[in-house]
Design goal:
heterodimer, A: 665 residues, alpha+beta, 3 domains, six-stranded antiparallel β-sheet, five-stranded antiparallel β-sheet, 16 strands, B: 321 residues, alpha/beta, Rossmann fold, Helicase, Ruva Protein, domain 3, 2 domains, five-stranded parallel β-sheet, 13 helices, globular
Chain lengths: 665, 321
């Protein structure tokens, strides 16, 4: 395809379109890159806009000066990127470099080819945005930017140079629409490598919020303020009732009086477990988080794929969870969980030396009273329930001893306070106990049936070892605030702390609208996650089985892809040819051949030149060719414009002998 | 009652060669009076063969009136000139009904419009009301007065002139009415050779009287019918459609060419091809008639002051398929 001339004059449409496209392409990166890079990019591109002369090139100063300027600019860019990132490699630095060099290309554009390259660089820049975020708004934005850049690139094949904005956008839309079948086909069939499509090593400093591996005062409270989604659950059967939804995560054993951490018994064997009752099958799609803990309803039968059980029966992923992860589990609500390691029970009785004297004294008094363990648990729970304890997000700050102050003075706390204090009491009373963190509850999105568990559903509770029942869950928070467990966090806390726009809180009409909007958006977002972003090998295999192509390996897939691509292109081609039947006009094809031969000897036909005019012009330029050309033109006109198809043969014959030479014989 | 404009049954059926020969005679005769303006004469004849009305836009004194007079004479048509002024009334053009004592009834006195060729001089000086009376008659080829429709003669041509430079006290024709003129031509100054001949020669008005009619009305009608039989191949219609399409999608023109303009281009190109002695239309024919047909219909906003006419820009940007 020959590129047509493009006017790159100051503020010419082609220039403005490309400018807009490239600025949009950089748009997604602006919040991530240093400000000076965005500004320099805009400066370089705008310079091209303002500083080009009517014939479309940068205003000419002396050539060496311009060259010097370009080299200096390039050096400044390299040095600047190096100073900002300490490297020229890697994702951030690489993209910054690409952005600035795209600006340079825009600046130095002279020919249609340069224009083409600058446009394609812009397309590549748009693509790099996907390395950071793959949400729907980003995808829509990218699609729009691609539309603008395609509209700009249309200039390369627009001989008239005069397309109006609407016509140009419509044409770009049509081009993209024609590409759609191919996009779908390649998306479905292109062989997937294991792992997510947009896998990129995450940069070390990228912080992820979510439930961590430790529990210190305020850790969960901070999560409560977050509306982010922790994971989504799709139950195969019905959804269990809310109070049963304990999503078990990291189990914490040891405390220094303030912070609780996991046990060090990493190598120990997984515990024996007896499961009973019907299984609940479900699939969890977990968002990236800071730990590698996977969450499961109590208690799962087997760990998920590429994950393992620890001795305290938590599931941990073998890889860090810096990508969205999907796993299927089957859980049972009736179970008996044994100890996994012999040291476990000893570990579950340890208390930090010289901490919480009053709590320990209370616990000891229960043991010395000779109560059976079950009674001790009950009396502790009664304590929380009957004494004036409050469930609050903003407990007063502890001055010295966290547990003692909470239990005996302030009596205001959040689930982590209750869980920690309860475990301390139990251990003091001689009952092995441990803290379990995770999530409790979740919101069912009625639109797609997914249960959405947010960071705000983070919770902490306790497990105690009882001779007759193994490790048994005890949630001290439920004794203080039953609503937290029965209705979820929204029911237990005032609306003001939940992340809702003013006036939308509560159960009024606006609150209802807000919830419905959020449900809709999240349902769409989830579809996107499930079907587009998590379209990995497994899902592809499932789709292929559905299509009856289940046995194909990657070679077969590529072959199928090739054949189907060919098919689609053929169909599109046929549609295009049918829409323009004159393409198949034989006389025209012959005449085109004739014109190409004349072009080769240096006499090209101007695109708007009629056959008669062209013949006359060639006749004056090359008198020796005047006769044959006149004859050919006459035959061509007769067949094409006077409707005498029978002369086509003559035209073909005479054209066969027409081989013009460059110079007159 | 509507008079059919079809070829009368009595008219001879003319072929391309005969039509060409006859029209060559007309051109030759006209050129003895209108010096050095052969292309304008030919385009004006093309316009009339295409059954279209003609607007001539030029300065006073370049021969607009003479041109129309010559055309009337050589084509053998009855001729009336109407000088448009600001106080001209529709009745002055169309005619009036007067009560006749002899007949005891209203008697219609036809206005000057009841001629085969009308020269509407300085059409933009009359009020819009009077202009509309003329333009309606042009479109419908009949006049309705006192509820009675009276057909205009056949053939019926209007040649209107307009002075482009002096707009004071004028009512420029709106675009919708400009569209009714098949072509708009400029006469322009004669070249030096023609000018010298003009200065040396006799008074043009005397010469006018000496030009014999070259055609009969029947022949003219037959030639018009022959023009309609000129072949237009699909390839040519493709080109015409490309031109129309481009004028519509391009940002240079607002608005683009109407379907009526497309028909006018095609009719004129046929007539021009016939004048060249061809039985088929070439892209070149369209390119030749295009400036006359579209320049007054198109508003060229893309080009600056230095750019060519709208039609020239259009031709340049649309490839011949």
């Amino acid at each position: 395809m020959r590129l047509s001339e493009i006017s790159l004059a100051r503020f010419s449409p082609a220039l403005l379109w490309l400018y807009a496209g490239n600025v949009l392409a950089v748009g997604t990166h602006i919040p991530r890159i240093p400000v000076w890079i965005s500004l320099l990019f805009l400066l370089i591109c705008s310079a091209r806009l303002f500083y080009s002369n009517p014939d479309g090139q940068l205003r000419q100063h002396s050539a060496p000066l311009m060259k010097l300027l370009a080299v200096t600019l390039a050096a400044v860019i390299l040095a600047g990127v190096w100073l900002s990132y300490g490297t020229l490699m890697g994702r951030e630095a690489g993209i910054s470099l690409l952005i600035l060099l795209t600006g340079m290309k825009f600046l130095e554009m002279k020919t249609p080819r340069d224009y083409h390259i600058a446009g394609f660089l812009g397309l590549f820049l748009i693509l790099t945005g996907f390395l950071y975020s793959q949400t729907i708004p980003v995808a829509v934005y990218m699609l729009l930017s691609v539309g603008v850049l395609v509209s700009a690139l249309i200039a390369c094949n627009d001989p008239g140079r005069g397309l109006a904005t609407v016509a140009r956008l419509r044409l770009a839309g049509m081009l993209l629409a024609q590409a759609l079948p191919l996009v779908v086909l390649i998306f479905l069939l292109f062989p997937r490598i294991p792992g997510p499509l947009w896998g990129m090593p995450r940069d070390a400093n990228s912080g992820l919020s979510g439930l961590g591996e430790e529990m210190s005062p305020g850790a969960i409270t901070r999560l409560i303020e977050s509306d982010d989604i922790a994971f989504r659950v799709k139950f195969e059967g019905g959804t269990p009732r809310k109070s049963a939804l304990y999503w078990r995560g990291p189990v914490l054993w040891t405390t220094d009086g303030v912070t609780w951490v996991r046990s060090r018994l990493r190598r120990a064997a997984p515990p024996r477990v007896t499961l009973d009752g019907p299984g609940i099958a479900y699939t969890i799609t977990q968002e990236p988080g800071p730990s590698s803990a996977l969450f499961a309803l109590e208690l799962p039968e087997a760990p998920a794929e590429r994950a393992f059980f620890t001795h305290d029966y938590q599931i941990r992923s073998q890889q860090p969870l810096d990508q969205r992860k999907q796993y299927s589990l089957i859980s049972h609500t009736r179970y008996r969980l044994e100890s996994g390691a012999e040291e476990e029970l000893g570990l579950a009785l340890q208390l930090p030396y010289d901490y919480h004297p009053r709590a320990v004294a209370l616990g000891r008094s229960w043991r010395e009273a000779g109560l059976p363990p079950r009674e001790i648990v009950r009396s502790a729970m009664r304590q929380f329930n009957e004494e004036p304890f409050y469930y609050t997000l903003a407990p007063p700050a502890a001055r010295s001893d966290l547990v003692d102050e909470f239990l005996f003075e302030t009596r205001q706390g959040f689930c982590e306070h209750y869980a920690a204090a309860f475990v301390v009491l139990m251990r003091a009373a001689g009952i092995p106990a441990r803290v379990v963190t995770g999530y409790q509850g979740g919101t069912l999105n009625p639109l797609d049936g997914y249960l959405v568990v947010r960071q705000r559903d983070a919770h902490a509770w306790a497990e105690v070892w009882l001779e007759e029942g193994g490790w048994t869950r005890v949630d001290p928070t439920s004794a203080v605030s039953p609503a937290r467990v029965n209705e979820g966090i929204e029911g237990a806390l005032p609306d003001s702390i939940l992340d809702m726009p003013a006036g939308f809180a509560g159960s009024g009409f606006l609150g209802d609208v807000w919830r419905r909007l959020r449900n809709t958006f999240e349902a769409i977002d989830n579809r996107w996650n499930q079907w587009v972003l998590s379209y990995d090998r497994n899902r592809q295999a499932r789709v292929l089985r559905g299509l009856g192509l289940g046995t194909l390996e990657w070679e077969g897939l590529l072959l199928t892809l090739g054949v189907l691509t060919g098919l689609i292109l053929t169909i599109l081609g046929i549609l295009m040819f049918r829409a323009r039947p004159r393409q198949g006009d034989r006389a025209r094809l012959l005449y085109d051949r004739f014109c190409r031969r004349l072009e080769r000897i240096g006499i090209p036909r101007r695109s708007h030149e009629g056959p008669d005019d062209f013949a006359r012009r060639v006749g004056t330029l090359r008198r020796d060719l005047a006769r044959p050309i006149e004859e050919i033109t006459k035959l061509y006109i007769e067949t094409r414009y006077a409707g005498r198809q029978e002369r086509l043969v003559d035209l073909e014959n005479i054209l066969r002998g027409f081989r013009p030479r460059k110079t007159a014989a | 009652m509507i008079i059919s404009t079809d070829t009368p049954a009595t008219a001879p059926r003319l072929g391309v060669a005969e039509s060409h020969a006859l029209m060559a005679g007309v051109t030759r005769a006209a050129s003895t009076v209108i010096l050095g303006k052969e292309s304008v004469v030919r385009l004006a004849l093309t316009c009339l063969i295409a059954r279209g009305h003609l607007l001539i836009e030029d300065l006073p004194g370049v021969g607009k009136t003479t041109l129309s007079h010559v055309l009337a004479n050589t084509l053998g048509l009855s001729f009336q000139r109407i000088q448009f002024t600001s106080d001209l009334l529709p009745a002055d053009i169309l005619g009036v009904s007067v009560f006749s004592r002899d007949l005891g009834a209203f008697d219609f006195h036809p206005g000057p419009i009841f001629s085969q060729l009308i020269l509407a001089d300085e059409v933009n000086r009359a009020t819009p009301r009077t202009q509309s009376a003329l333009l309606e008659a042009m479109e419908e080829r009949q006049v309705t007065i006192d509820g009675k429709s009276r057909p205009l003669p056949n053939p019926f041509f209007v040649i209107a002139t307009q002075n482009p430079s002096h707009h004071a006290g004028t009512f420029p024709l709106p675009e919708s009415q400009l569209d009714r003129f098949n072509m708009c031509l400029q006469v322009g100054y004669p070249d030096s050779k023609a000018e010298r001949e003009l200065l040396r020669g006799r008074d043009r008005r005397d010469l006018l009287g000496e030009i014999p009619p070259v055609l009969t009305v029947e022949q003219l009608t037959a030639i018009q019918a022959a023009a309609e039989r000129v072949t237009t191949a699909d390839a040519l219609l493709d080109y015409l459609q490309d031109l129309l399409e481009f004028s519509r999608v391009s940002s240079d023109y607002a608005p683009g060419l109407s379907p009526r303009a497309g028909l006018a281009i095609l009719r004129s190109a046929r007539a021009w091809a016939l004048l060249q002695g061809r039985d088929h239309v070439l892209p070149e024919d369209i390119q030749t008639v295009l400036p006359g047909v579209v320049n007054h219909r198109l508003n060229h906003i893309g080009g600056g002051a230095d750019s060519a006419s709208p039609a020239a820009a259009l031709i340049e940007q649309v490839p011949v398929p």
